[in-house]
Design goal:
Elements lengths: L1 H8 L20 H9 L10 H11 L2 H10 L1 H5 L2 H16 L6 H8 L3 H8 L3 H10 L1 H5 L2 H16 L2 H16 L2 H15 L3 H15 L3 H8 L2 H4 L3 H11 L6
Helix pairs in contact: 1-3, 1-7, 4-6, 4-13, 6-7, 12-14, 13-17, 14-17
Length: about 250
């Protein structure tokens, strides 16, 4: 949303950046407008604030971008779902290969998770029809549009068991703190190099491990079920275990 970028930068200029209007163009409640105007961003309020903030955000490594966002008082004043939507947009921009000029488009036009959940419940033909007719989707960079289509294709081809694992993995990721997500980003490249069967085996073992009391986890790692995994699979599982609370 343009409003989100405006809040983060502290910029108040231009009719497109009108803080008294919501993303649909309707006039927002006066109290909400006042709150937005008072929620100063990390930069000075000026016409160049948005561009400067985006340049700074896009120049940072992925593990520092979320920290910059969370340091912004304006970001912390946003509702939790909107904070998560912006964080997801930044992550997707990184995964898509950081397309030039694409970060602002993703922050402004990336949908909330509920949109993707609705797409998952449709047939492939319905999914494509909705994406073709959705203005926000069409405003995303081509790289992000293709990434969404690829994710939907994997979902459509997945078995019910695989879909359940995908949902559980997403829930686990959302439950992690920013620091844990930073650690997870260092593990994911090795995880992605595994075959689909190996990834499924590791995720199934991790879900079991996650539901065990801390005192029983080492015993599970030494069990025949885990020992039959390959050394790479066991190594990744051990690294994932380190992200779990110890009490």
């Amino acid at each position: 949303m343009a409003l989100a970028v405006t809040l983060l930068s502290g910029s108040r200029s231009g009719s497109a950046q009108n803080p008294d209007r919501n993303p649909r163009g309707d006039r927002a409640p006066v109290a909400q407008g006042r709150q937005q105007k008072q929620a100063g961003g990390p930069l000075a309020a000026n016409p160049q604030g948005k561009e400067a903030f985006l340049r700074r955000l896009s120049s940072l490594p992925a593990d520092q971008q979320e920290k910059l966002l969370r340091q912004s008082p304006a970001f912390r004043n946003l509702p939790a779902p909107e904070q998560q939507r912006i964080i997801d947009a930044v992550r997707h921009w990184n995964v898509a290969g950081r397309p030039p000029g694409g970060l602002q488009a993703m922050i402004e036009h990336e949908h909330a998770p509920a949109f993707f959940q609705q797409l998952r419940e449709m047939s492939p033909a319905e999914q494509e029809r909705v994406m073709q007719g959705d203005a926000r989707f069409q405003s995303l960079p081509p790289e992000r549009q293709q990434q969404i289509r690829d994710n939907l294709n994997r979902w459509n081809a997945a078995t019910p068991e695989e879909r359940q694992l995908l949902v559980q993995r997403e829930q686990i990721l959302q439950s992690f703190s920013p620091e844990q997500r930073d650690q997870l980003r260092q593990i994911f490249p090795r995880y992605r190099q595994l075959t689909p069967e190996s990834r499924q085996a590791v995720m199934q073992s991790f879900l079991k491990l996650r539901n065990l009391p801390p005192g029983e986890r080492e015993k599970f790692l030494a069990s025949p079920e885990v020992q039959q995994l390959s050394p790479d699979e066991r190594g990744i599982l051990g690294d994932l275990k380190s992200l779990l609370p110890q009490n």
